[in-house]
Amino acid sequence: MKARTTLAVPEQMWDQVTADLLSTPELERAAVGFAGIRRSGLAGQLLLRDWVPVPAAEYLVQLGYHLEVSPVFWARAAKRCRADKEAMVIMHSHPRDLERPRFSPSDDHGEKDLIPKVLARADIPIAAVVVSPGGVTGRLTDGGDPEAMTIRTVGKLPTPVSRDTHDRAFDRQVRALGKDGQALIRSLRIGVVGHGGLGSHVVQQLVHLGVGEVTVVDPDRVTVTNLSRLVGASRWDAWLHRRKTRLARRLGRRVGGKTRVNGIGESLLARSAAERIVDCDLIFGCTDNQLSRSVLNAIAFQFYVPVLDLGVELQAKGAMGGRVAWLAPGGACLWCMGVLDSETVRIEQLPPARRQDEEVRGYIRGIEEPAPAVVSINGVIASLGVTEMLARLTGFAGASPRSSLLMYRLADGVVRRTSPKPEPDCPTCSARGILGAGELVRPPWQA
Length: 447
Prior knowledge:
17 strands; 447 residues; 34% helix; disordered C terminus; Rossmann fold; 23% strand; eight-stranded mixed sheet; seven-stranded mixed barrel; alpha/beta; Cytidine Deaminase, domain 2
């Protein structure tokens, strides 16, 4: 049976956890993790925020096949979980197991004794994780018997067991990405926020790639001014004022592949839209407003769903080009990169009456001025973004670390790669913001 709960862990944190737990090859080691809790229907997700290794003085017994930790250590951890409304993750190692580990009878006995004591102090989900040189196994106790739990490193997706790549339509693609890469693409659920000049290019490419499921979020309808850049749009669509999401679904049908295209004709600020998009494996941000972009920024760092934020900049005088930013724990967020502007986000959140009043008073100027757009430049940025997704998830471009920000400049046709660092005090992506305890930084739709 497929596990209903996933433990999501930032890659950098997981490297630290496994390095510590496996640092004594002859002795088992233990640690405790603290995780945010998210539920979606019958499924659940734990988001590992912080962890603490068991200090040497807290071990009562530490052997190569068995360990016991002071009850005082677990009591402190339970107190923190109760105060911060976090789940507890009990982690330990099987350093001698070269295969994927299993929970031993000793583990079963220890948890049977420990879990009731933790629950007496805090009514919380309790996960257990065992790590070995050969892999990792997890399980969850949440109001019943333990059940299997999946562990996922943020930004990395496992290769599916099935390699059903016999479809001749993808023959050339398999030659580039490999059977594992194509199988992974087929398993992906990808969100695209904004089906305009950028988003329509992205959706077209995802459908042709054979992505399993694409969910498009856009509340707008087609107008005549969209026709110069909206892929697949016709004058009939503008005359009939059709929803942009309808065009995305139509594209999926016309290509005739296996991709399922879903349309959500609401703003990302609507709770129902945001909750569905958070269930995706990865999100493309193709929105043209800063408020939606700020929500995607929060989703990437607070809900551990990687976001590829795409943007185009065209000015009569000044820099012209665009960017592709990879947003995930461990990197800089859009606030740190200087992409988001707090005043613009504030204005875009204002109720219409308040916004009109500020415009009349002269407090707001030029905010409604349409941005320039050219279909070919949109295509360049969209292609850079989709290719970056392929490079990160399938590894076809090599195993070297990827830069988190790609900047394309039209003047010289060069793509410059950098990896901005998080600002130390940033509440969204700094070490404390991502890994620390306490309430998540909530986007507007969760406030």
